[in-house]
Amino acid sequence: MGSTRRVVLLSGLTAAATRIAATPTEAVSSARTQDTTPPGLDREIRFDEAARAAAAEDFGHILRKMPKGVLQPNSASDVAATIRWAGKRGLKFVAQGQRHSVFGRSMAHDGIAADLSRLQTIHSVKANLAVVDAGATWSEVLAATLPLGLTPPVLTDYLGLSIGGTLTVGGIGGRTPRFGFQSDNVVSMEVVTGTGREVICSANANVDLCDSVRAGLGQVAVITRVTLKLIAAPPLVRRYLLSYPDLNAMLHDQRLLAHDNRFDVVLGAIVPGPGGSWLFRLDATKGLTNGQADDVGLLTGLADNPANRQASTQTYFEYLNRLATLEKTLRSNGQWFLPHPWLATFIGDSNVEAVVGRELARMGPADLGTFGQVVLSAFWRKPVTTPLLRLPSDELCYAFNLVRIPTAGGATEIGRLLQENRLVHTRVRDAGGTLYPVSAFPMRRDDWRQHFGAAFGSLSDAKRKFDPHNVLTPGYEIF
Question: Which of 56, 150, 286, 429 could form a disulfide with 145 if both were Cys (CB 3.0 to 4.6 A apart)?
């Protein structure tokens, strides 16, 4: 097959509804169609090309969708007024935080994008609660809570994500096995519905709205402010990097450590090795409140290679911020700005060896890139209570993610990886696994219905009630 024909076929994966690029002519034409902006805003909507071009990109750098305008709100009332204004004009509206989606999910072609990173105030931090704006990042929350010895129970591996963005998809982290997802640790939320109504929801008030906002992919409301649970933060952590000869040995220890709970966090990774091989690793940590860690007791009975063990003591924030060095490297060599065709799924314990073993046999290091990895981390299903999160039926589940960091952004190669993502997801789903919807490949409406399963009815009901004109977050193409 000729190279031109291959590009055409692969580009077909992301056809009209998910365009790879918008031309400058289209962008200018769109800007000229603006009409009057909503009255009474603290800030006007920006229609200049620079603001719109920034909102047309996300971390995935795969799709580009140019909005008509960009709201830079100073308040939730600005968000509400603009949603009402957009709805009356048949415009779509999407909230953007740090734009870390990887497949255009936080974009609205020819609609209105709201830059919620402007809403970043930390309003209060108390003994067990923090009230924060949805545009604040987790690192900004930690800057306010750690001086008081407090931390959110669950934190994403990368701290530069916004609170609203992660709650919209769920938010998995190292302490999910004990505390669930970030969306399970929300006390209440202030949101703006698709009709432009400002509402407070929680487990005790407007419960149906609360349950359809958490991990609801932005389909019924925009999160503007959140009350988060807090717990005591250890000043130090003892960190162990463990290596394994093969997948079975690593999974043996994952199961052992999931059951005996000796560590606070256990993260699994499979990385490219020499000659096309795979290296299997666990990253395990234990919080220290005083004294020294019991290295011998913590490492007894493990199946790793003792000669390759690495142990270190770090401050709690140094550990949480461990990806900062990688980010700096990827920014300096330009890979941060290349496409990121990532895939995130969940697989149950009963099928994990077969599924992961099969996919490793199919993949090579080039499918991930020098800095890429396969994430394989165990967590218990029981603490996860967010209704719209879809998980396997097994009590012990695994996050199984392909963190692809290719060294080049050619359309043919990216198209191939998008196609591979869909095929891997299908095989995972056929083995009883589920999708974590932060992934890069096209999803049709029927795919979303299959993804949500029995929960799709409740999400549809909430959509009709809270966003009856289908104004919000069109990038997922669910409705």
Answer: 150
